[in-house]
Design a protein that fits this description.
This protein is an alpha+beta fold and about 190 residues long. The protein folds into 2 domains: about 50 residues, no CATH class; about 100 residues, no CATH class. About 25% of the residues lie in helices and about 30% in strands. The strands form 2 sheets. Strands 1, 4, 5, 6 and 7 form a 5-stranded antiparallel β-sheet that branches. A 3-stranded antiparallel β-sheet has the order 3-2-8, with no helix packed on it. The longest helix has 16 residues.
Length: about 190
């Protein structure tokens, strides 16, 4: 044991094991001999050598080239592949008129211009998750504002998500608009 403590450079694991052994007052001489033989064995081995360094490197073959048609056919046959989102022809939006604190629920078809105060809202695409337990709807929305004697100004153009309205929010001092759900409207 004294030889171990007299070494100038002790690695942290060796130092911790040594301190643990010395702190145990009931450690037997037999245990100390096993500890010393373990330290000798570890210091002489290549235990910390990486597995990748031990085995010769094999030549990596490039993955086979798959076309988009091949990838599409793979997902159609795979029962564990995620289901496609359901595209809908309608959307339900919710709007808040901040000065009056009135909330409006608006149903509209895709491509229809919705007038909400000075805003003109057009939903260009809407789809929802196919699973009933995961209520997620997403819509691509363009919002412009038309004030009297001013040209129309585009305020928002992007995706809105029903489960996370703050992720891509529309910021306006007078109005809030967010998507509630995508749904199929009767024609």
């Amino acid at each position: 044991m004294e030889r171990i403590l007299s070494q100038r450079t002790l690695s942290l694991p060796r130092l911790l094991l040594t301190a643990l052994l010395l702190s145990c007052s009931t450690a037997s001489l037999l245990y100390a001999q096993d500890f010393e033989s373990l330290l000798t064995e570890l210091s002489g081995s290549n235990a910390d050598q990486l597995e990748s360094e031990k085995t010769p490197e094999k030549k990596k073959e490039p993955p086979p080239h798959l076309s988009s048609a091949d990838i599409a056919s793979l997902s159609e046959n795979d029962e564990l592949a995620p289901e496609e989102n359901v595209k809908t022809n309608g959307v339900t939006l919710q709007g808040l008129d901040k000065p009056t604190a009135r909330v409006f629920i608006i149903d509209a078809t895709i491509g229809q211009t919705i007038e909400f105060g000075t805003l003109k809202i057009v939903v260009q695409h809407c789809e929802k998750a196919p699973l009933e337990n995961r209520q997620e709807s997403m819509a691509f929305v363009k919002i412009t504002e038309t004030k009297p004697n001013c040209p129309a100004q585009q305020l928002f153009s992007g995706w809105m998500f029903s489960s996370s309205p703050a992720l891509s929010s529309f910021d306006h001092p007078m109005y809030d608009v967010w998507i509630k759900e995508c749904k199929d409207l009767k024609k």
